[in-house]
Amino acid sequence: MEPVVVISGGGTGIGRASARALALAGNHVLILGRRSEPLTQTAREIEAETRPGAVSSMTADVSSPDDVAAVAEHVATTHGTIDAIVNNAGGSGGGAATSLSEVAASWRGAFDQNVLTAVLLTTALAPLLRRPGGRIVLVSSMASRTGGGAGAYGAAKAALNGWVLALTTQYAPEGITANVVAPGYTPDTELFGAGMPEEIHDRIVGRTAAGRAGRSEDIAAVISFLASPQASFVTSQVIEVNGGTLPPNL
Fold this sequence. Notes:
7 strands
């Protein structure tokens, strides 16, 4: 039987690129997201490139306990055992906050989008992971290292970097690995919307050793490796995929 990988936020950007890479590697991929249209389109396009049935989709808000419970029931009924969970769902949240209540809402929203999503999905699906051989991948951000993302986003992503240590302690004895991928500047994702102003884009690229911005496929390649059998001795790591971000001039 084909290995099975579940990816949250799988309809666009890094999630979509990861679904494609994993399908090309011979996995069956279940992609999750809040919007059915991009999920359906992504599944159709990847299957056209790979094989019929390579990708399935399910509409779910993975910050909702009820939706995640429905995902777990579907996965248990349809697949039984899965091989990897890729927690890619997330977002930068709202705009500037001017009152304390707005600050609280902004930070709670960032936590819900970037941490609770991963915690709920991983908790619900971990009992279904192959033992030994299961894989947990969390998608963080270089904002967790640099303090970017207006504070709340970077702090929420940094929580994933810490949580992976607890996941490793819990699951390593069962032969399950847990790792974090921290993407650098990757403008072909919905996180950046219409894109950075050219001046800011050039400034960021100018501080990247590789001399270019990242692409979703760059991140997906590392995620695909970490979700594979070949990564059995890699766990508890925060792997930066950023083209060699240079330190700032202080």
